[in-house]
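To assess whether the prediction recovers the assembly geometry, we first specified each molecular entity separately, as shown.
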Amino acid sequence: MSSKESCRNELRTAIRQLSDRCLYSASKWAAEQLVGIEQDPAKFTPSNTRFQRGSSSIRRRFRTNEITSTPPTGVAYVSTPVMEEDEVIHGDFYLLAKSYFDCREYRRAAHVLRDQTGKKSVFLRCYALYLAGEKRKEEEMIELEGPLGKSDTVNRELVSLERELSTLCKNNMIDPFGLYLYGLVLKEKGNENLARKVLVESVNSYPWNWSAWSELQSLCTTVDLLNSLNLSNHWMKEFFLASVYQELRMHNESLVKYENLQGNFTFSNYIQAQIAKARYSLREFEQVEVIFEDLLRNDPYRVEDMDTYSNVLYTKECFSALSYLAHRVIMTDKYRPESCCIIGNYYSLKGQHEKSVMYFRRALKLNKNYLSAWTLMGHEYVEMKNTPAAVDAYRRAVDINPRDYRAWYGLGQAYEMMGMPHYALHYFRKSVFFQPIDSRLWIAMAQCYESEQLHMLEEAIKCYKRAANCNDTEAIALHRLAKLHRELGHPEEAAFYYKKDLERMEAEEREGPNIVEALMFLATHYKAQKRFEEAEVYCTRLLDYTGPERETAKNLLRGMRIAQSSFPSMDVEHFHP
Amino acid sequence: MAGALKLPSAFAITPHKVSLCILVQIYASPSQVSVPFPFSSVSQHNRLGLYLLALTKSCDDILEPKLDQLISQLREIGGLLDHWLTDHLTSRLSSLSSPDDLFNFFNDMRGILGGPDSGVMEDDQVILDPNSNLGMFLRRCILAFNLLTFEGICHLLTNIGIYCKEAISSCSSYELRRLDDSGNDLESLSEYENMDLNLVFKKINEEMEARKRATEQVSFHLHLPKELSTLVEDIEVFADPKSEHNDKGRESSSYASSGDLLRDFDPNGGVFLRTNWQIQGYLTEQADAIEKHGSSFTLNAFELTLRQLQKLAPELHRVHFLRYLNSLYHDDYFSALENLHRYFDYSAGIEGFDFVPPTGCNSFGRYEIALLCLGMMHFHFGHPKQALEVLTEAVRVSQQHSNDTCLAYTLAAISNLLSEIGFSTTSGILGSPFSPMTSVGTSLSVQQQLFVLLKGSLKRAESLKLKQLVAANHLSMAKFDLTHVQRPLLSFGPKASMKLRTCPISVCKELRLGYHLISEFCCEGSTMTTDGAFSTAWLKNLQKPMGSLVLSQDNSSRNNSNPFLFCTQPSSIPGSVLQLVGSSYLHRATAWEIYGSAPLARVNALVYATCFADASSSSDAALVYVKLVQHLAVFKGYKEAFAALKIAEEKFLCVSKSWILILKLQLLHERALHRGHLKLAQQVCDELGVLASSVTAVDMDLKTEASLRHARTLLAAKQFSQAAAVAHSLFCMCYKFNLQVESASVLLLLAEIHMKSGNAVVGLPYALASLSYCQSFNLDLLRASATLTLAELWLSLGSNHTKTALSLIHGAFPMILGHGGLELSGRAYITEAKCYLSDPNFSVSDNPEVVLDPLRQASDELQALEYHELAAEAFYLMAIVFDKLGQLEKREEAAASFKNHIVALENSQNVEDLLLSV
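The predicted structure of the complete assembly is given in tokenized form:
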């Protein structure tokens, strides 16, 4: 409990400091976590706990591995953030500058602080300059679209900022916020190693600045890089790790971290959304839907992460829910890439692919590097049978993030559609390389090998085996494996996989022609092997079905009885000595 | 993406264009005299006009020249006027300080345009015709300016600021040169006596003052606090990738010894990348260069250039293709694969392949081309099976999309693959899609399938009028005819009477048909040259006449670049055609080599080396040198061959597995064998074997050669049974992979092995078999040498067979003496002498010259070759003859020579140890 209390105190101070420095998104994040901490019911009246919605029943429905105790998050060696404040006279200028800043008049704010030397003022001046440059950059990007897509616009303030901040840093006159800004500038300039170092320094001395953490996260593209970071222990590090793991596709690790964090921050919307995203990646759609429903009930005007929710609704084909969501986000904020993406998803579900493409395109106009929009647009083009456009869209996604296995998969599918299975294989290989645990990818690759043009059945079998090993929900792999082995004349293997497939179908209480096929094969197989008892079992099960197989089963049974009766003595001699 | 592909935006106004407008204004300032104010002569005026025309023609720029580059060009054009021009330009540019100035500027521009109907000049007044090139340019500029939004105008203003600042920052070095320049000008003045000197001097004084003012201005800028000025520099570097680009270009050109083409970036040369079209041309040129120079092309420097280009023009996908080519020729499999896929994902195969007629430009894209390229890539990396799979898919897809052109190319590629790489069987690989072609069934052998494929693809190429492909197909057909006996495809039915021989006439016919290509291109003229490469060349050449008028101080650099310019003169025959025609000569040389006509082979190789060396790829050129050097070695001995090899080594980079390296090993091996350095021979032979099966792929030809040499080394070491075993397994391999020409020489070797081991009777059938092979493949020289071996075999069977042997030798002599090398004729002479000597009816004293003459010839030739063993034999025989004749002095002489050779042979052991230790 004391840990909760200390967290709360730390966050409260941090929020004040962050918003005093106009680091609004970081302070927003901190405030969200602050409210997310579970209150002590003894101390607070129900009116105080208004925010703490009592929907835990839904929330916990799927939490099987309930965490009972708060996890050891390590000793936080930085207790309460105390920052030195500038003098009062300068404080007046600061107040003016901050007001300008709040009105988005960044250059004016910077100008007011031009002669101030306090760390806080310097930071705000630099930050304002940076934002002014960013704003101009965005504007120019639209103004200056070259003939060949050339847009070499840069933030023109970066150079001077880098020079100033590096001098400050050298003279040790810089506070953690300045370091954050320095790291940001370095990252923009492409000096990633130094940026990483500076950001680590920043978060080690002031861990409550989530913006710094997320910049650091975007620089950790591999596990090795992550491990090379020298981070001090603090509970904020857990948030960071969880988020990095998610980016690195270590979803289970990430999920564990988030669930641990939920012990303290029980009501954090942020954590809830992140858990939903992780579960989405693990394809646990039911749970994701519940989580998002809950989230929207508590935070109805949320747009962040709602594209993931829309993806879930899309896969579950919930037309009305998706349209409701689209309506809601468009009323909240029309010009967010997420909003456009959701609408695109809706139109896609409706089969209006042209409109869908239009909205994805709008999303991309708002954020050129919006990965999932490129991929989804590729899917739309595939639906519209415009394969070159699809290929192009997928390729852009892949060039933005080469680890995006969905886009690789899409590329493979597009080429397979065009009747180029051998060419497609390259892409499927890429896709399974980045996501080796997804059975669908393996199955797609196997089907590619199986196609009549290639007819490379041995390779197909290898792929199906991999698919069967990674939780193939649609149970295609086992059946195909059995069939392929039978075609290739490997009865033993075929029997093995038919049996497995049968067990699986029984467990899932599935019916269909596959069962009959499996039973039929097993019965004949065991009969040929002279293992009559097993064969009889399968034959009798076949009798439950109608159709020609039933007759065959009867025949088989009859044949076996005759065979058994002719050699009864042999059996006796062998088994009952 | 095909949907979102942006059209090249219309006509954007840039600082460079503003300066052009200023220059146009100077050129066409409305004045009343025929030569407007600053110009002193009409020719000067015209020169500027020409220059402006050239600049305006290349106005759809990706990269534009910077101000200082423009100024340095102006210096060459303007001659005496340059200072006035540049000062006017810079002052005019720097006077543009607010958007309103720009508005006024473009309003002024309107003034120098004539009215729409002012076709006639009034009062000698210079007015721009609005429909002239310059007038159009000006109108476009004005229109573009009027279309600009206010933000656009602001950008233009800031860009002009940067544009001027850059020129200033590079001013320091420029100033120095400029001062020199003025000195030069003063000197050169005396040459122009008809000029009004006073006027000129006055003008120069004015200029000097103006320049001083300008430099003051400059120095004012330079006196800024240091921090700020560095800041300015930094921003420039950052905001303007062009300058970086140039640096990179310069760097790379200093790396690339042979990559003259990178001079394009040389700022002093004054040639810059221009239009989209020209960039394409540049890339095409580079692609040719990569293919030509192979792995000697610099990888990283070019990669940097490409990366820059990609940054500047993200929608120009061909850059990816160049990256693919670059990594392909540097054997970087993964990067090649990645870039190939990326290129075709972006371009859908529609961009880039200019020679594909854009007829059925459907919305599906042309991914079959991607497959074709992928197949070729696998082929290049030595993955024949994968290549065949991919190409099979390419055949299917191009049939589906009815892309006949691609189909023809794919078939050609497949037949090339089949003929280059030994497949023992294609069953299971060449499957159903080939059924239309190989309707006869799959029972055909690889060779038969190859023949059918070749015929099919030739027919297809002819019907599609793909001339280059037709020529290439003729060449590969010739290659096929050279090494394959045509057999009837059907194994039943009425058989056409067919001789089981290759047909040299058909080879010649095919080669000649391939050669027709060049005449076709000669007639057609310029249709092929309208590509971007030409337009870059055009700009380069444009500079030349003007540059030569101005006596510029940097003569040296100009001289350097002149031959380069000469090379890239747009000839009416494109490089690829030249390459094809050249390779037809190469084929001829090889064909004659195989048929055994040394002089003709040499002549063809020489023609290639002299006429097509520029157009050929470096590996082909090296191959020709190899052939010439081999010729030298066989006919002139090793001394000259090694001297020639040295020259070739300097000319071509001796990288791993290059022709030159192989040649060196071959020469070393042969010399070692002749001199009796057997250990060295074995070592060299092993190295050759290693080269044959490298990581990338097994080279069948080289592999056969290596084991053939291995067998020969063993034979020389008198390890007969081992040699026979090696030769035997080699023969099996040759049989399996249908290497029939090689089989003939392996059989001959087997015959020799048995002869040397004393089993002449066993050797006879081998020699006969070899003879029959030689007959059916028309290998005349090899046949002569087989006949010689046969004669030797007969001779060793006993003295009663000398008649047969002698008649055999005499039959072969014309061929041996006409075309055979030193070793062969030496051997023939010795055998002849031996025949006479062992003939019991022959008496030396009656007719000594019959024996002595061939022996003398043989000893001369073998000494040149340093073939100790045979030379010793010749001298030995000579000594015996002299002994019989009673010429004791001469006998002693011959005996001494004999001893020398024997000693040399025995000492070879020691020498060799020395050699090996070194």
